[in-house]
Amino acid sequence: MGEKGKKPAAGGPRQLITIVKLQIEAGKANPAPPVGPALGQHGLNIMDFCKAYNDQTKDKAGSVIPVDIFVYSDRTFTFKLKSPPASVLVCKALNIPKGSAVPNKNKVGKITRAKLREIAKQKMEGLNCYDEEAAVKVIAGTCRSMGVEVID
User: Fold this and answer.
1) What contacts 111, CB < 8 A, 6 or more positions away?
2) Segment 59-89, tens digit of pLDDT
């Protein structure tokens, strides 16, 4: 029992094999790449995931929602939704299509501290920060790397 290389007995505890991380547009998961190949290589039912993901994200249409998919030894899965990437939230707040290709020279917009605080509150769970002020600084760094100027 519990020897290396042996599979658990039928009905035994399922083991976590891997975690697949994807960024998919809300409500638009389908078996095409990147979802199909990422899940297919682990023997999962791709349509089951797509239906469950689309059901849970249908109210967030238009946003990119990162997801961690936990794959188990019995070919079952669970998944956890995360908040959208900070860069996507900044682009949406400023109503711009994307950040600057040369952020130190070409600025694409300006954002206030109040907007940064709103975005930081939304991202707080996913950030490696203890307080809100540190989260605001992380989001401000993202803004600078996108060519967005932070104003007070």
Assistant:
1) 90, 93, 94, 143, 148, 149, 150, 151
2) 877 778 888 888 888 888 888 888 888 888 8
Closest CA to 20 of 47, 55, 46, 58: 46
The whole-number pLDDT of residue 11 equals 53
Nearest to 57 by CA among 25, 81, 26: 26
Residue type, 73: S
> Residue 57 in 3-state DSSP?
helix
Instruction: Among 63, 81, 99, give the residue marking a domain's end.
Output: 81
Task: Determine the structural domain holding residue 123 and report its residue range.
Answer: 86-150
Q: Give the mean model confidence (pLDDT) for residues 126-145.
A: 84
Distance (Å, whole) CA 126 – CA 27: 21
Neighbours of 15 (CB within 10 A): 10
CA distance 39 to 18: 11
Does this model's pTM top 0.90? My answer is no
